[in-house]
Amino acid sequence: MKLNVKIIGCLMLFLLVGIYCSPLKKVLNRKDIKFLNKIVDSMYTVDQDIRNAIWDIDSIYKVDKKSNNGQYQLNFMKKKKLGERYNQYKKSVDSVYNEMRKIDDSNTNKLLQLTKKYGFPSQERLKAKRASAYLLFVHSPRSYFDEIKALLSSEYKANRISEYEKAYIFWHINDRIGFPPKLAKNGRVIYNKK
Fold this sequence. Notes:
The protein has about 190 residues and is mostly helical. About 65% of the residues lie in helices and about 0% in strands. It has one domain. The chain has helices at about 1-20, 30-60, 75-80, 85-120, 125, 135, 145-155, 165-175, and strands at about 180-185, 190. A two-stranded antiparallel ribbon has the order 1-2. Helix 2 (about 30-60) packs antiparallel against helix 4 and helix 7 packs antiparallel against helix 8. The longest helix is centred in the middle third of the chain and has 33 residues, at about 85-120. It comes from Pseudotenacibaculum haliotis. This is Lipoprotein.
């Protein structure tokens, strides 16, 4: 009896892995490519717009690099410079960060679903001049890390994500230790030492 349960469990796992990693993630046709480019570009625009909102707040409060002779202002510097206005500034920034977390969660979830259905929408597969999908995963919340890691390892084995895109995402998942990897002119990945 126990053996049958184990066999059934193994068969179910094999079936799930087979479906998860199966070649059902077809070669993308023009319609898929157009659809995925539109969705990924839209997600990336929202991702960047919310991040730019923080720079806009810094600019309004004159704690941005441009207003400070090209010097990045650390939080304690902003607090000192703004004085009593710091609480108002902080409230504005916190509001944007709260919205950013929601957007990052939504984008990550959507990108996971798209990847499961179509395979990873890499620059090469979407025939895009610039890649944006991997940058969405670089803003993923920690709660998704295990799922992303498993899925992208599978996608890499299936040649649906480049070594560079995977390395950059894994740099984020592995706590952003050191500098992110770089892409050399010859297409090789340059891993930065910790």
